[in-house]
Amino acid sequence: MYKVLRTFLFCFDPEWVHYISMNGLKVMCKINILKKMLSASFRPKDDIHLSLSKKIYNLNFLNRVGLGAGFDKNATYLNELETLGFGFVEIGTVTPLPQSGNDKPRLFRLPKDKALINRMGFNNDGVEAVTERLKNWKLTTGKLQTANCRLVIGGNIGKNKITPNEDAWKDYETCFNKLHDYVDYFVVNVSSPNTPGLRELQEKDALHKILTNLQSQNLKFKHQKPILLKIAPDLTNEQLDDVINLALEIKLDGLVASNTTINREGLLSPKSQIKNIGTGGLSGLPLKQRSTEIIKYIHQKTSGQIPIIASGGIFTGSDAKEKIDAGASLVQVWTGFIYQGPSIVKQICKVL
User: pLDDT tens across 143-195, in order?
Assistant: First the structure.
């Protein structure tokens, strides 16, 4: 059924389809009987949830399958994504000030490769608006959820495009402090290829300043939140070693591996199409092998000391199992959700 719908939807602009589809799902979830039908169709059964629950970072994840950052940038669709069975959702990337992102078109499909290319550019409503939305979400769902049965929310944070790199740590601090009471964990995003100069912040000295400052800020709160770092798949082994050494040195809570890639090698799509699309981060199936390699490398180098959330090329239960076998604790989907449809969580959980 979804394959037929996907063929139709793929006739239209990807970004437009994203908002139309999710807003349509939002309307359906406001009708109680339709929400129950959606939940029954796409949410994993309770016995599967129980068998796949995972406690990590002192958080109880209902299952290991989450939705990566960039899909629900503004915390607009949490109720709907919970209905589809996700164990956790990472909102953002959130920046201190609202920004419109890069010029459109900025999201492109590569169906032959089961991939996407995006150059969104951290478009989001800004931390004030997102915080208010999360506050309302907590108020409306708090009475219905318990610690052992609730959607875990991650906050992916970044810097504004206009902020110079030497002041980037201030943007991360602002987002961290504003969101602290309303998310369960944080992911520091310095690895998107779509904000000029951002990846320079992956260098050890810049990273050390950003992360240690956030750890200092964390101690000011009664309850500390886990801080993770999202890394690029384009790092060399030497750069990965720097990240690993820093993570161990400052006792970072975890890593997300990995973000989108600027690599275009081995694609099945015509070179002319790739050239016409231009710059942007590639996600989806072409990223699968490199993401797994990075996870395995980090896991072996650290003897499993650093928890890893796997992201990149996860479409099926066997893909998710591959990541977990490589050393990941949790998995995130994004592009796989677009190509596989709303049953992706249920199908992955069945295999796991």
Answer: 556 555 689 999 999 999 999 999 999 999 999 999 999 999 999 999 999 99
CA–CA gap between residue 73 and residue 155 (Å, rounded):
10
Among 156, 175, 167, CA closest to 228: 156
Domains and their CATH numbers in the chain: 2-351 (3.20.20.70)
Q: What is the DSSP letter of 184?
A: S
Integer CA distances (angstroms), 163 to 99, 169, 172, in order: 12, 10, 11
Q: Which residues lie closer than 8 Å to 29 by C-beta, 6 or more apart?
A: 35, 38, 79, 80, 83
Q: Specify which residues 342 forms β-bridges with.
A: none
Taking only the tens place, the pLDDT of each residue in 59-103 is 999 999 999 999 999 999 999 999 999 999 999 999 999 999 999
Alpha helix ranges (H) inside the chain:
2-9, 14-29, 32-42, 46-52, 78-83, 127-141, 168-179, 204-218, 237-250, 271-277, 288-302, 317-326, 335-340, 344-351
Tell whether the torsion through CA atoms of 27, 102, 123 and 307 is positive or negative.
positive
Q: Is 271 helix (H, G, I), strand (E, B) or coil?
A: helix
Residue 161: how many CB atoms within 10 A of its CB? 18
Cβ atoms 190, 122 nearer than 8 A? no
pTM given for the model: 0.97
Q: Indicate if 192 belongs to the active site.
A: yes
Catalytic residue among 191, 192, 269, 291: 192
CA pair distance 255, 244, nearest whole angstrom: 9
